Structures
1.
Amino acid sequence: MRNSMKVAKWEIKRNMKNKTFLIGLFLTPILIVAFMFIGSLFNDDSEDLTTEQVTVLVNDQLNTYDSLEETINQTALNLELKKTDISEGDAQDALIGSENTAYIFIDQRALEQGIVPVYTSEEINPYFMDQIQVFETPLKSIQLENLGLTDEQLVMISSNISFEKVVSGDRDSGTENNSEESSGPPLEKIIPGIFAGFVMLSIVFTGMAIFQSASQEKKDKIAEIILSSLTPGELMNGKIIGYFVLGLIQTVVSIAILLPAAIWKIDFPFMEYLFVPELALYLFIAILGYLLFAAIFVGVGATMADISTAGNFQGFVMMLPFATFIFIGPVLGDPSGLWAQVGTYIPFTSPGVLLLRLVLLDHWPWLEIIIALAILLVSIVLFMKLAGKIFKVGILLYGKNASVKEIWKWIRA
Amino acid sequence: MEVMLTVEGLEKSFKDKKVLKGISFEVRKGEIMAILGPNGAGKSTTIRNIMGIMYPDKGSVTFHQHNGKGIPREKIGYLPEERGLYKNVNVMDILLYLADLKDYPLHKAKERALMYLKKFDLEGKEKISVEELSKGMGQKVQFISSIIHEPELLILDEPFSGLDPVSQELFKEEIRSLADNGTAILLSSHQMNLVEEMCDRLFMIQRGQKVIYGTLNDVKTEYANFKCTIRGLNNRHELENIPEVVRVEDKGESSILYLEKDVDPGNWLKQLPDKINIHELNINRISLHEIFIDIATDKNLMKEGSEVLA
């Protein structure tokens, strides 16, 4: 164990001094933040456009001005309303050379044909024509009033017809219905769930570097020198621990950069929802997930001469963490369905699917959770053992990739 | 001399091929013991079995002065045949890491690292990255890494391969001085001249079997008969008729006469026929190099002798 810690310390130190790792360490979260901002930059632009003030001159012959003004105040649209007596012909002349100005003519045509002529300057807020649609409602009501309808009739006509769905039978069986009613899982579950998911992704992805690292000793031909000081098992465990810590460092750095940006940008009290009892279980699942993949990566990594020469088998193994993504759709659709359960019991997808389900489900299926955790733990022990066997032989196999047949032989040895 | 390491009856098979067939020897404190043999003879396999990198099918490896179980890794320095260093780290970091793995105090390791870097003409290189080192410099750093923790037993697998003559000399001197200071050294090499100059005892191995084992002098008296090289054109038949000549080899204008085992060179010279044409003559023992080539190519020039001991 002491030797493993030395290896772990070395792996951490080596990576922390490595420019590539450091750039990745900071660049990943900075890129995420950058994309957040680039996204909001576009939003700002569009907001600017919609908020550009337009002067609207109304030639009102139906006494609607007050209700129009009221509508604008309610919707907070950036329109400046003014009265005018100008004629349609003069309006066209007056608009030449002006910008963000419009003339609206509300007269009998609006009542009879439902047409309101609008004359705008050449340069105008592109959203203007959408914005003035809000005048439809007051004008419509004047139109209806003119027909001599009672208030009651007015209400009935102006209200929309909606379709209400009522499902018969057991309420619980209708999960869709359920989720509609509970309006999604509570924040105390989502926030720690996202956090744990982030931690897991972060350490698993950093852990993928184990792949590289396991073949590093072979590539640099230092394996025998190292193994003259410690056992292959110690070296392997050291790497697993080292990359776990590196993953945590990546997580902490990412969070340190992302969280302030997120809090500032989204303006939401994350912290209150983050530190809840559920977080402990989430993080436990995340760590189990890491250990499983770390064992697989370190074992398979030791069978390759170099990451660039990885064969089909190695490439396939490397894709294992992404298997979880297959289940995301079905689990979101039905967190207690067959797919969700299958995903929970497959060790490779179990951590991700379990996290997702726990976030989505109101009532945790404890039996399933316990069985899944047990499967996960057994798999970890099993894969660690297999990885140890493969690592022991593979680490000394210089300059070539091991075939699946060879790996099988080492496992059986 | 105190025995540091005993190897007894080592056997190892890869698939169906037996690569070690009962190897036994010992390494003593303060001596340089050489394992010699052609490629594929089993030298590195023997060493890997000693280092616990492989496990023998049969036989035992005993480290004396060590009470615990397993291999006293912190007391052994090892320079493998296939060797290298992590590429993207600096020289001092890797030396300190390897010393740390041997449980050697870091401040002492740092001192010794600087001392050895200076000794090997690498002064001021401790901060540069390993990948910037030339091959020879890298070899030197690897060598330093194997001795930085003051090992009691030093195992060097082909320490001279890829070194220029100047560096070879440096290594040779350092290895000799380590032995003089009490380190037990086991080395394997192809460079016979170097081995001949520095080793105290040797173990020659062919196809996983012992061929020769003993001190350099013993081996030379035992196996290295005298040979006489004569430059000048002579009739082969006449040369073969000279008493105590076992075999004659022609090489252009010179002939090599292999003599019988117990020949007395002085007396033998006196009875050379007068008619022999001699431009140049020298008489010496067959070198280790020749014994080695002989064994490696299965000529079995010294077959009689080897059979006696094998």
Note: Confidence is low (pLDDT under 50) at residues 303-310 of chain B.
2.
Amino acid sequence: MSAQPAVLEVDDVVKVYRGGMRANDGISLEVAAGEVFGMLGHNGAGKTTLLNQVVGIARPTSGRIHIEGHDAVADPEMARQVCSMQPQAQAPLEGVAPAEAIELMARIRGASRARARRRTAELVEGLDIGAWATTKGERLSGGVQRLTAFAMAVAEPGRLVMLDEPTNDVDPVRRRLLWAQVRELAQAGCAVVLVTHNVLEAERAVDRLVILDEGRVIAHGSPAQLRGEHAGQLRVEAETVSPEVARDVARGAVGGRPATVAGRRVIVSIPVEDSAGALAWAAREQQEGRIESFSFAPVSLEDIYVRLVGPDPDTEEVDDAPVEP
Amino acid sequence: MRRWSRSFGLLLKWNLLRVRTELPMFAAVQTLIAAGIVLGFSLIIPSIDAEAALYLTTGAMTISLITVGMVVAPQIVAHRKAQGLLDYQRSMPVPRLAMLAADAVVWIVAALPGLVVVLGVAALRFDLAFAMSPLLVPAIVLVSAGAAAIGYGIAYAAKPALVGLYTNLVLIVALMFSPVNYPADRLPDWAAAVHAWLPFQYMAQAIRETIDVPAGGIPVLPFVVLAGWAAVGLAVTSRVMTRRV
């Protein structure tokens, strides 16, 4: 993947807003053609700020951004033409139906009338939004609006495609359809940047990723690389009968290993070779009626993410807290 | 230039699709308001001579264009700003001024039927005969462009919450306290001096003196001043639209 020349090169970008807020603090990354590149982080981690600098809505305080070797900071018009972006904000669909908006956007991006029509038909079918293709924007659900905005961005994609939270409000079935389209873009040679705070999705969809926290890159690599030392570990998750029991179970979990409690859930990581002992422990707790159910799974990217940056205050339960054995 | 006109055409199409249901209603209301100004003022002032009638008629047309450019257009921008749509527009690969022009043209064109109706109403009500010049067309273009450029300039520069306040103020000033519906010599000296710098009286003059060309011919000054105001408005708008935070 890295043998391909980089389409997007971000080099030591710092963005300090008026008022002193340091939104990006020395970010460097490269995205190659044919690659789906994830950018993960909490709200306020600096993801959208970085995207806005790439398309010339914001100007870096220092650092360099190049798209296909051209200076995007000096020439924002060029950046907007080479890069198709789906911003986090909803698209202006008032009074316009998805099929019309997708076709018009494709033409604005330079597609011929015939190609714009064909791509619109492909995307409407590919994302399964045919039932709403001629419904005006204000009557569409948030999810269909988001899918339409996605289709508008990718109908005539530039060499660089940037998607900011593309699956917000989208139902699980159509999310998969959207990921399939993202994969097709990469196969067609686009460099795709995907911003999300949904780690589970990112793990399946991206080739490489960075995790941003407070404007800095705190981890980068493929999902497998990031799991790294945890690759030989299992995640044991037990659903207990009550939060009080959960705390008690956590104290003696799998021979006193550090556990995390989230409501009635207890989560412990263990080395694979200890799985027999852990299974016996879980079965015993279940027999005693303290655990309702349990599961064993490989340590996920989400576990790593939470360990690196802490639980997302927007999406995680508030009572996630490690319990000392 | 090709990219500009292609973007403009496609954005114009987008805007027309977007407002296709509201547009006839907008044109109808705009026509009623313009005709209403002519008829309403003629009730307030019972005996109207030919000069006053000419002022009222052309003033109503000017107010109509001012309303579209300096009230309707900025309110739409403020609405979009409040909805967060501006950032979306900013990320689009189109020249910024093509976006504005495509926006303004829709509303200005929708105001045109009203202008024709006003002339008809005035001709019937006041028995007016006009010595119209073909320069009326560039006058309408310049007045509309100037009004929209200033309107956008302020809408982009001001906070959305203040735009409604500002547009009300513009409308009252233009309708009541500007030498649009009446000659400037009715104003106190200081107000007339202020209006020598504001665009309103030049807008009115450009329309009035191309609809009924005065004996001395059409003066150049209003066109120059309006071009200047349009340039300032576009410069501010363009600066705000392309500024990177």
Note: The mean pLDDT of chain B is 88.
